[in-house]
Amino acid sequence: MAATTHAILVLLLGLVAAAVESFDYSAALDKTLLFLEAQRSGKLPPTQRVKWRGNSGLGDGYSQGVNLVGGYYDAGDHVKFGLPMAYSVTMLSWAAIDFKEDFIKLNQMGHVLEAIKWGTDYFIKCHPQQNVLWGQVGDGVSDHYCWQRAEDMTTSRTAYKLDAEHPGSDLAGETAAALAAASLAFKPYDSAYSNLLLVHAKQIFSFADRFRGLFSDSIGNSKQFYTSSGYYDELLWGATWLHRATNDEYYLKYVVDNCAAFGGTGWAVKEFSWDNKYAGMLLEGRAGSYASTLQQYQAKADYFTCACMQKNDGYNVKLTHGGLIYVREWNNLQYSASASFLLTVYSDYLTTAKKSVQCPDGLIQPQQILNFAKSQADYILGKNPKSLSYLVGYGQSYPIHVHHRGASIAPVSILHASVGCVEGFETWYKRNEANPNVIHGALVGGPNANDEFTDDRSVYDQTEPTLSGTAPLVGVFTRLHILSSSPYHKPQGPPSQHYAPVPQPKAAPAVPVEFLHSITNSWMVGSEKYYRHKVVVKNISEKPIGGLKLQLEGLTGSLWGLNPTQAKNTYELPQWIQTLQPNSECSFVYIQGLLIFLFVSINGVPLAESSTLGAGYISRLLEIQDRERAPPSVQVAAAHTALNRLIPSHSSSFQWGGPLPQTWLDQQLEMQKRILDRMYEFEMNPVLPAFSGNVPAALTRVYPSAEITRLGNWFTVRSDPKWCCTYLLDATDPLFVEIGRAFITQQLAEYGKTSHIYNCDTFDENTPPVADPEYISSLAAAIYKGMESGDDDAVWLMQGWLFTDDPFWKPPQMKALLHSVPLGKLVVLDLFAEVKPVWATSEQFYGVPYIWCMLHNFAGNIEMYGFVDSVGSGPIDARLSENSTMATPLTQISVGVGMSMEGIEQNPAVYDLMSEMAFRWDRVDVTTWIATYVQRRYGKLVPSIQDAWKILHQTLYNCTDGLMDKNRDVVVSFPEFTLYFFPTAITRSASPKPCDVVDLTRQALAKYANHLFVEVPIREVICGSVRRLSRKFLGLVDDPWLESAKNLAQDDQQRKQVRILVPTSFITMFNLRIEWNARTQITMWFDNTDDEANLHRDYGNKYWSGMLHLHGYYDLLQVHDTESGERGGFRDERVEEGVDQANKRVAERRRRVLHQ
């Protein structure tokens, strides 16, 4: 009995000891992530949780012509050292990859990815050109002479770069590794950003390998802070990560081929850190034919493991008496943290492979390796001779005099005055009190070789934290928490906005529905913060649910996806979801500003309640004009909205069929929001507009000192200024950036989300006023700055149409425009590449990424034509061309191919082929493709149809003449008497053999109309023939188009606004201005005459569609059927007088319509 009691007592004591020694690794993880936020440089995001920090380093790089804002401060100072920062991002990314499921379980993946992205966004900025990498911002020497907050910095912010003449293979190789690893981390969440990181990683690695050297030789003032021991390991390290990210054998072969020369299989190592990566190259699982060489690489990991665990035949890593890995006097804990991380990862690798490590002094199992890694983490958290946590903010006892400038000085919110260099030392550095700000998660330098520690700011080797020290612990703590039995610990602070779902109170088991709520976006407007919320409603019961009602109390913003009911604040599912089936779900989205309470009921029975915190919603558009003196903004009618930007804002909107009724504008806005929501649901990236500089003329009166220029004529009407000339705000004017920022901000507030891609075409079909390349460069730089000021992640998507034919854009002007924007922040659409590929004549847009686009259709022309042979080969030729930038996604846009047509629902074969080109890697044999396409299209093989399509391929679909507008049939030609004398100009193509009934029937009828038209006697007028043939012709083109257009009006406001009286000789009344727009679409949308513009020219070559019989305006074809004329043409004076009168009536009608 005594023995049993003793055994129980021992067991209980063991349990008590275990409880004392256990640590909350999840809480420790929270702290480490907070430290990363405390080290942020640049403009802090709305989700920043470390509130004593503020914006800093906002001018980094600008004095040297580059934007280097962002990134992380290295330690307790304010220098941004590239090598340790890149290593830290690699460690974070490695953890996010290998411990992905662990992070998700802890609801921390969002914070980890944000921490990675804060670094990778900065690295992208550091790589503006292929062989340039900015490696450091700030001077360590001068920085150490000052003790200031980052927000008060007065020290040098000089930036230092690596290039071909100043190489740095170690820094560049580590940066390539960081970007490659980060691309893997982001791949499941943001494939476009992942691709962008990978492109930069490849280019930076190529730069590192081609131009070899130590970064400290090129950036001299870094030597006393971070002196690299060599660059071979970083080259191997970068190739290792690129192989893992791309699975490209080139990088694996690089590692194998250089194994001996670069020390990968020769040198023994007892350190893994920012300076030495040899032990971390774990590639055996990818060995294949290189197995023997890669096993030698793994031998380094084995050697390191044995050395750490004191089983290496005396060649061991030094341990302190308390069991801590000890490598160096200065900031030793960073080496312990890195070793702990690598051993944690390696133990997982060995466990998966069911292997162990054979050391000189015995066999080591994976669990023993993990236990040793855990011992290092536990030492850091307090299991040490001092019983002190070296992770600041964790536990009951931790360092309070941390050598960190920001933490040791009162924050700006309390101490509003700036702190000077000397003042900081005298007032804050030397004070005995604890730091006013707790820098949670900072891993200090730690104890010396005897486990002794002095908590004093002046003992910087022990009390200064580093980025590279804390970063490896993120993975260690995550893994240890999952493997331990510690309770679940929710993360501190607000949820991550991009990736992590917001935790919701769980409903009782009896509730048949659950709600998954997430914040999908957030933004700032002024000092206010806004959120876009998405709520997924899921039926978790085993029965269908009907009559579901949701009551939203306190909703102040917009709501999509639910229908309002007659009951106050009560909503129901959309009509198409009457019943929610078991395990099915639906979702709704809202913008919210106050606390919202959600009550749920099924058939009137309340179920559950939850609350979420949102933000306000602003629903107003940017208005910068003199409301009293200026005319209203030109709201052109529907016929002209496509060219609204080019229509002069100083003219009356009535001249252009406007103004548009407010109901129409509201409907369009609502439709836009629904379209955007649907695009985001399909994971598409909508492109939103940015401010292009086009402004109302009234702005010249509101801002008389602003640099505003009237541009030249854009297809004016008889040179009348009321019909021409837009106004452009000079992009170098400070007002430009102000409006650009407001434009993006208000748009974001209106739509609630952005893909960060914006189109802006300031000089599309308008020429800059000055050809000086410096001026053009300043314009483009300011345009992008306007975007970036409203969205830090903005990417400019620009049409390349301006380069197609305009002789203004010579190489110096093109380069000035294209190179004025940071690399990766501008993408060009090669808009008409199937006919006029600009990439081929501009050296791949002079190195700027572009998208090969097929334009094909102008203004909705429905004529059958195409360039299928060009489409089937052009994108491939561009991608495979030398130095192609089409195949290099330097931005978050997946660069490749696109379609930029001005009309749809025509020529499906052309668009089917172009759609396939996005997935093809080789040129298409179009003849074979046509044969298979026809069989797919009709569901069976019909020889006669195959023959017909061969003809179509050889004729209509192989138009190699480069013409844009193919349709010149009489039914779309300008109706005037001169047509009677030039019939051959409109009969250039023969009737094709019909296949698709509708298209080819229309095509055949159009050609038949040409035939009827030609048959009208010209030399000898026979009135009966004219009347008979004219009636046949008019019968072909009659159509209910106008009547259909009238039915588009949806309310009295639209109907009232568009009623216009016209002469009764033509028609008693235009029912709607919509009808006016329908007529305008096919009579005056565009004019391209060289001498004097004419109001009746159809750019889109529309079919006349009912215009002929309806008015008598086009009945001039029948005016002469009762008149006699002279031989050789209509020479009778009475006929000519009638024609003149008809023309006058036409002119009077036009004048009246335009001024209603």
UniProtKB/TrEMBL annotation:
Entry GO CC: extracellular region
Active site: H403
Subcellular locations according to the entry: Secreted
Gene Ontology BP term (one): cellulose catabolic process
Alphabetical list of InterPro entries matching this protein: 6-hairpin_glycosidase_sf (IPR008928), 6hp_glycosidase-like_sf (IPR012341), CBM_49 (IPR019028), Glyco_hydro_9 (IPR001701), Glyco_hydro_9_His_AS (IPR018221), NAGLU_C (IPR024732), NAGLU_tim-barrel (IPR024733)
Domain Carbohydrate binding: residue ranges: 513-593
Record field: catalytic activity: Endohydrolysis of (1->4)-beta-D-glucosidic linkages in cellulose, lichenin and cereal beta-D-glucans
Enzyme category, top tier: hydrolase
Protein name in UniProt: Endoglucanase
Organism encoding this protein: Salvia splendens (Scarlet sage)
